[in-house]
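Moderator note: this is an archived Q&A kept for reference. The question asked for a predicted structure of one protein chain; the sequence and the answer are reproduced below.
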Amino acid sequence: MIVGLQEAVARAEADYQGLVLCHEAPFAFGANLKEVTEAIAAGEFELLEQYVAEFQNASMCLKYAKVPVIAAVQGMALGGGCEFLMHAAKRVIALESYIGLVEAGVGLIPAGGGCKEFAIRAAQHAAKTGGNDPFEFIQPVFMTIAMATVSKSGAQARELGFALESDKIVFNANELLYVALREARGLAEAGYYPRLSPRGVKVRRPYRHCQLRDDARQHEGRRHDFGA
């Protein structure tokens, strides 16, 4: 799936004006934990590092695609599936959707860029309010991650920060693809261009500040700094 997503983006950039990620419910569950457990038991840690690196590259590929990528979501979008939709240019979500980063529930930390996206959004919110400390914005979303909270609806996914205010919530799931295609066409016709890569995003910690970098696609082949 990870390789397939990157190939789909490459083909869309070459031949089309946009890309819609759509799948009948469930949207996506993320990594196969059984396979991860077997790899750990076999001591294949280098293989796991490569998998995480490709996972992160796929997320960044979606975010910095030259054409608009729209995630059309219905049903469950958990773990890696949630992280993929967070990196899309826009989301169209069926009301009956259950979205969340559930890794903490099995003792893991999300590694596909979801934490990084929350940190960037917190810094952006802080900048809009004239403050320099994103902590008050980042604390509630990282509690959401720590508690492995899953939204009970598409509307609550927006409240929890998995979706943005500009994203569409669709009551009838049968209209999901139609609305997503219109969103993709609208962005393309408006002269869509991928977002600039943020630099020097401050993330407050109890005893120090750290810098978070969101590397763009020219850094493919390297594991990104946000991997955790």
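Archived answer notes: The beta strands are 19-22, 69-78, 90-100, 168-170, 201-204, 209-212.
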